[in-house]
Every structure is written in structure tokens, then in C-alpha cells.
Design goal:
Length: 556
């Protein structure tokens, strides 16, 4: 005979055995003696938090034959029949596979019949949000005016998909993710009863990996019983989960604090080489960085699982990081978790997140480049050389003080830049970087143009596509670009946008196109076709077509 799964074997049989949902059990236990029993309940919340088990407990309590107020008794024939799964008056329906109107019509036809042996006939609709709209409409009248001997319990993880007309006819109870300490305590109780020896650190890791789902924690403990026998160690849990020791996570954060890119990447590659799941490692890094952020803002009370020695080490790391740097690191590694799902290189998103987290904004700016088609060498300013140089921190000086000193030297060495085409070309990388900090969309548009000429204080920009030219000429975008260019070249200047076909380079002042006389309808159609072809070649438009299935329907 197959062994019974732990989550079924240890399913709560009384309200007192329910873990982490005191707000629900307290309300129901008070309502039962007073006879305040609703005809319909909605149990909603994350998976594995006890919603269906609570529905069965409710069925027991309202049908219990005991005269004692503490129900269910689990001794009468009704309680035992429910525990053994043989009470005909408890009907559990999987709404995910019985979601149509015909199934709901079957329920409507049967609710009129009185219970076989219990006081109430209980219908538990699991995954109720999966019902179709016609099925909900068919159920609505029954929920509104049910027979007095019927109770409906709708169970769902997605209450927003339940129609408001259904919600308004149910008593709603929101189940919460079960706290970490409650899961650890319950797992320890199961281990003691099952004769298992489990290391405390192993219990904590099991509970953490369950992310608030008691059923997931029990299933993992069940799996480890088969893996490790009567003794379960932290190493075994890490092997099953594909996790790494917390020391590796702290080591990676140490390198982030020290801004040592080489050693940080070595930690990631070493962990990956040991067969650890990069997604699990990334989750541990995000959780650790979150804890550092809590320490930074003064909320240490929630870190009850951290030993005094580890807490002291974490405080040392926090002292070297600002809140802004911590928030930035959390965001980067959290985004890496999303990128890991689609990445072809297992650890690449982790590596990119780490490198990005160690760099200042100045260090992220691309090196100066010459304009397209230019044969002149780039003229790099002292400020640009400082920004792109390797970050070396002398002993006794902080990274920030070195940066401020270098900026002061660069300002002294570069009192101003002469506005020439060569200057604009050499500073084009900085112009793009500064624009990106203010508006990413404008920076993307500028990538499709090239500086063509400088006429006095006017910079002429040539665009390959009319759409890009027109967007940059919008007043707010044009003002932004002029502000950035003026800031970079350290002088007031204006911009003028012209069309410049790909592959062509102009070195003389560009004249505005001469207004042509009114064209006939045939010429207008020819121009429309030309604009359509030009727009269709736009990389942004091509990306939208390939990625989202868009199509160009008109050109105004």
C-alpha cells in the first residue's frame, strides 16, 4: 500500500490545528455557537495556506453531532465520515475541470434534494475563478436564494476573476502567507512525531523555500525523508533545492561592497560550476540584500533567524553602502531573476546585475566615439578620461573622495570646449549617455542620427528617417537635446534637424529644403509611398512588427 503524503496525513482536523490563519479560525469559531452560519463563503489566498482544509473543517463543524460547543469533535459518525472522505453530503468539485454551464446546471438540480445523513449539504468549489461567465450566471441565482440546507464554499487563488455579483453574496475570508516561524514550528512538530532528526538550519531552509506555503514545506520534508532517511541535514536540503551555503551569498555581497568585479564574477562562476541553480542563487542574493536594506533603515526586529555573529557581519557591510546603492542592487538582482527565465546563458543575467551594481553612473557612460564616416581621431577630454578610467582606491581614501578629487582636476584641466564638428563627434557618447539619464526615448531617437555640421552656435543633426526627425523637433524633445549638448560642450548652442540618407556624409552647411510648388495627386501618392517605405525600414517599427505582430496601416 502506498504511503500517505505528509500534507494529507497532517491535514488539520480541528480549528486549533490550523497554522497561521488565526483571523479566520477565530471568526468561524465565534460564529458557530451563535448560529451565524452564512449560506456562501469565499476563501481566497495563496496556494498551500489551508483554504480547502478550512472548508472541510467548516463542513465538520456545522454538521458535528456533539453537544459540546468545541466543534468539531472528530468522534461522531459525521466527523469520522468526513475525515475518511465518505460523507455523501460533502461534495468537492474541481471547477478547473468542471467549469461549464452544464456542470453548474447539474448542481442547481441537486441542491433542492435534502442531505442524506448530515444537517447541511456542503459544496466546495475549488479553483472557483475558472468557471466560465455563463456558469457564473447560472450559479448566481442559487447563491442568491439557496435552500436552507445548502452551504457553498468557493475556494480561489485569484479573487479578482470572480464576478462582483458573486462576491457580494459571499462572506469573504482572505488567507495569508504563513509566517516563517509558524512553518518552522509545524515542521518541527511533524519531524518529532515521525521520529526524524532534522537540523534547525535545515528546517529554516525548507520553510524559506516554501515562501509561505505550508503544503509546499510539508511536501519538501516528505521528499527529504526519502532522500535522507531518519536524519536530514542542511547539506541534504541544499542538494535537493540546488542552493548554496549562505557564506557564498555574503562573499558575493562583500565583493559588491569592495567593488571588485573580478572576484565577484569568480564567486558567481564558482557557484554555477558547482551545479547550483542560478535562479535559486539569485533568490538568495535578493533576500540577503533585502535584509541589508532592513538593517539600514533600522528594522532589525524582523531578522529573527539571523545569528548575532552574522548580524554583526551584515552591519559591517551596511555601513559601507548607502540606501540608494542598496535599493539599486535589489532592483538589479530582482530584474536578473526575471531575465534568468529567458536567458540562454545560465549565469549571464547574474553577472550583468553584479557588474551594473558596482558601477557609478559616470562609469556606465560609453567611451567617446567619432561620428559615422568621420576619419578623424576622437578628441577625448580630461573629464571623459577620468570617468572611463579603472576605479582604483588608494589606501585611506574612500571611493567617493577619489571620484570628487578627479572631477575637480578634470574641471581645472578643461575650462571649456570649442564648438566644432570634431568636438561634437568626440563628445557624442557623453551626449547620448546624458540624454538617456533624462529620457530614454529621446536617447533612442538620437541613435538614428549623426552630427553633420556646426554653423556658429548651431549643431546640424542628420536623421535617416522622417519619423525620428519629427519626434526630435517636438518642442520638449528639442529643448532637452539642446540642454544636454550645451551642458556637454560647456556653451550655449542650438540644434537643427535635417534628413540625411544612410551612407551619406555632408561636411558643408546644410540648407533647408526649398519649398516645392503644389503637386498633383499622383505626386502626392508617390511621396506617400516613399514615406511609407522609409518608415517601414525604421528599426523601431521593424522591432514592433517582429515582436508584437504590429503593422503599418497609414502614414500621416
Amino acid at each position: 500500500m502506498a504511503a500517505q503524503a505528509l500534507y494529507r496525513k497532517w491535514r488539520p482536523q480541528t480549528f486549533d490545528e490550523v497554522v497561521g490563519q488565526g483571523h479566520v479560525t477565530h471568526t468561524l469559531q465565534n460564529a458557530l455557537p451563535a448560529g451565524r452560519i452564512s449560506h456562501a463563503y469565499l476563501f481566497t489566498g495563496p496556494r498551500g495556506t489551508g483554504k480547502t482544509s478550512m472548508g472541510r473543517l467548516l463542513a465538520k463543524a456545522v454538521n458535528c453531532l456533539s453537544t459540546d460547543e468545541n466543534k468539531p469533535c472528530n468522534q461522531c459518525r459525521i466527523c469520522q465520515a468526513i475525515s475518511e472522505g465518505r460523507l455523501l453530503d460533502l461534495i468537492e468539485i474541481d471547477a478547473a475541470s468542471n467549469r461549464g454551464i452544464d456542470e453548474v446546471r447539474g448542481i442547481r438540480e441537486k441542491v433542492a434534494f435534502r442531505p442524506n445523513e448530515a444537517r447541511y449539504k456542503i459544496y466546495i468549489l475549488d479553483e472557483a475563478h475558472m468557471l466560465t461567465e455563463p456558469a457564473f450566471n447560472a450559479l448566481l441565482k442559487t447563491l442568491e436564494e439557496p435552500p436552507p440546507h445548502v452551504i457553498f464554499v468557493l475556494v480561489t487563488t485569484e479573487p479578482h476573476k470572480i464576478p462582483s455579483t458573486i462576491l457580494s453574496r459571499c462572506q469573504r475570508f482572505d488567507f495569508r502567507r504563513i509566517p516563517l516561524q509558524d512553518i518552522i514550528g509545524h515542521l518541527k512538530h511533524i519531524a518529532d512525531q515521525e521520529g526524524l532528526a532534522v537540523e534547525p538550519a535545515a528546517l529554516e531552509l525548507i520553510a524559506r523555500s516554501a515562501t509561505g506555503s505550508l503544503r509546499d514545506a510539508e511536501s519538501l520534508l516528505d521528499q527529504l525523508m526519502s532522500y535522507g532517511g531518519e536524519e536530514i541535514t542542511l547539506a541534504q536540503v541544499q542538494s535537493v533545492l540546488g542552493t548554496v551555503p549562505s557564506q557564498a551569498v555574503r562573499e558575493l555581497v562583500d565583493q559588491l561592497v569592495a567593488r571588485d568585479v573580478a572576484k565577484g564574477l569568480d564567486v558567481i562562476n564558482r557557484v554555477s560550476g558547482e551545479g547550483v541553480d542560478p535562479r535559486q542563487f539569485n533568490r538568495q542574493v535578493v533576500e540577503y540584500l533585502r535584509e541589508l536594506l532592513l538593517i539600514k533603515v533600522g528594522d532589525e526586529s524582523s531578522l529573527v533567524h539571523v545569528t548575532p555573529e552574522v548580524l554583526q557581519e551584515m552591519k559591517g557591510q551596511v555601513a559601507q553602502l548607502s540606501i540608494r546603492e542598496l535599493i539599486k542592487a535589489v532592483r538589479l538582482f530582482n530584474q536578473a531573476g526575471l531575465d534568468l527565465k529567458a536567458s540562454t546563458q545560465s549565469q549571464l543575467p547574474l553577472e550583468l546585475a553584479f557588474v551594473d551594481a558596482t558601477l557609478d553612473e559616470e562609469e556606465k557612460a560609453p567611451p567617446p566615439v567619432t561620428g559615422p564616416g568621420s576619419g578623424t581621431a576622437p578628441q577625448t577630454s580630461a573629464e571623459t578620461r577620468v570617468a572611463s578610467a579603472p576605479r582604483l582606491t588608494p589606501a585611506g581614501e574612500s571611493a567617493r573622495s577619489v571620484k570628487e578629487k578627479a572631477e575637480g582636476e578634470s574641471r581645472a584641466a578643461s575650462p571649456g570646449l570649442k564648438l566644432t564638428l570634431a568636438t561634437v563627434n568626440s563628445q557624442w557618447g557623453r551626449i547620448l549617455s546624458e540624454t538617456k539619464l533624462r529620457n530614454r526615448s529621446v536617447e533612442a531617437l538620437l541613435k538614428s542620427c549623426q552630427p553633420l555640421n556646426v554653423d556658429g552656435q548651431e549643431v546640424v543633426l542628420g536623421f535617416h528617417y522622417p519619423f525620428h526627425k519629427e519626434k526630435i523637433e517636438e518642442p520638449q524633445n528639442k529643448a532637452l537635446v539642446e540642454s544636454v549638448v550645451s551642458q556637454v560642450v560647456e556653451g550655449s548652442c542650438r540644434i537643427r534637424c535635417v534628413l540625411s540618407p544612410k551612407g551619406e556624409r555632408q561636411t558643408r552647411p546644410v540648407q533647408e529644403p526649398v519649398q516645392r510648388p503644389q503637386q498633383d495627386s499622383g505626386a502626392k501618392k508617390e511621396m506617400s509611398r516613399d514615406r511609407y517605405s522609409s518608415l517601414a525600414e525604421d528599426p523601431l517599427i521593424q522591432e514592433a512588427v517582429s515582436k508584437y505582430g504590429a503593422q503599418v496601416v497609414d502614414v500621416q
